[in-house]
Give the backbone structure.
Amino acid sequence: MRDVYDAAYQGRPGAFSEMAAWEMLGESARLLPYDDLEDVFAWVGNGNPKYGVVPIENTNGGSIHRTYDLFHEKGLVHIVGETVRKIEHSLIAGEGMSLSDVREVYSHPQALAQCSQFFHTHRRFFKGVAAFDTAGAVEKVIRKELKFSAAIAHRRNAEIYGGVVLADNIQNTENFTRFLLITREGEAKIDPTRSTKATIVFHLKHNPGALSKALQPFASRGINLTKIESMPRRGNPFEYEFYVDVVAEPGKADNISKAITEVKRFTTWLGVLGIYPAWRGEK
Amino acid sequence: MRDVYDAAYQGRPGAFSEMAAWEMLGESARLLPYDDLEDVFAWVGNGNPKYGVVPIENTNGGSIHRTYDLFHEKGLVHIVGETVRKIEHSLIAGEGMSLSDVREVYSHPQALAQCSQFFHTHRRFFKGVAAFDTAGAVEKVIRKELKFSAAIAHRRNAEIYGGVVLADNIQNTENFTRFLLITREGEAKIDPTRSTKATIVFHLKHNPGALSKALQPFASRGINLTKIESMPRRGNPFEYEFYVDVVAEPGKADNISKAITEVKRFTTWLGVLGIYPAWRGEK
């Protein structure tokens, strides 16, 4: 019998984070919904639930800065896994509704933005209303039997909350969200048959070329850079910190720690948010 | 007498983009409000109005990917200037309203997010409602005399639309937005007494260390990197393009073009979105 773990995610049953949690922990995990991302970090940082599943970036919207900030603010959790999910949105309403009845559309602001072209086409008829999450929007529209209202969420929510799908795949373009598995204690199990990813953040010494030099230790060990982003430092909006994801080939995970030791020569501060198996689907 | 230009911005009178346009073009510029960012790019790309003012990044929310995308999609405009504005939000309502009357708060989803702590404190009482822009939210709440409703926007909008400020400086933290001045034709006037910035985008050849090598030509000429971000390529979510801002010291603008020529040796494609005077306030 395999272990069963508790895991926290932000949103309601049916949220994309819940599906990402299933994928990483298996359907036997006990998945616990939380209202706020802050709470997921706070409780997992407390040690119970053991795991949390949080979104970190979206191919349309970019990095989720709030998530990066929470790693800093809470400072107690690290990354032990990742997965990537395709984001598909449907327009969902209560039984008996048809597309022409819809006047208001509820969803998370990011989901509303991800369907902006669908809105653009129908803008004379639809008004977007912000909700805290996509599944919660469906729950609200259906349980409260809101007249003239629909919600944007994954089609699975129509089954969960007992609604109908009025329009399917209404997202603007192909759209993927990357989710991280976080925990307080315990290292990720590095699998020698899989690529290993590391997420690090650092502050550079002030000189031209500092970034180029800081990346060189990865380059010289054949470690690929898969993501880089400068972000303004809190309190110093014109000072930057750099978030970097790097990937080592199967069997070469050790090179990452060696490279990080060298990178530190060019930084004034460096934090490792996690070293973990890279998502299998990623090339 | 100085020239007077037409300039397009997204939003209504009172929007932060309008204030950024004044700052860059002077108060005598004729500023024209447009509903959509798409329209600003389309009309400026058409040559009339001559200028557009668009947000590109925010210290809380990060890069505005839609703006970067529109440089690609429209492909007709380039950057000739930049400015940075502090974003300050107030809660504004019609005359006679008080804070305890407010049940619904209208604003752009990003502005709602930027005031999330204010919302968190009052969440039992306030419901956020998404609007297309901050000034438009104030206009709606006041002109339609919406009961129990307020809007989040810069306090200036209370004067413009005839409302009252119920709460001031309700944004979570210090928060700055960077705006770009775009045009179809004509180069930026490089001022030898000011730093010069360049915004470039490129695709790298596939090999470890490609990014480190591609940044080296800037480093060797003493050109500072002020922003870097990898973004998934449209259509190829697991291929990346790199957006980079670099700054040369006053009098050394020529070094930028020389460095770019060298950088091309390490890229499969490189585009220059603009070479322009850096904002004076930035260190």
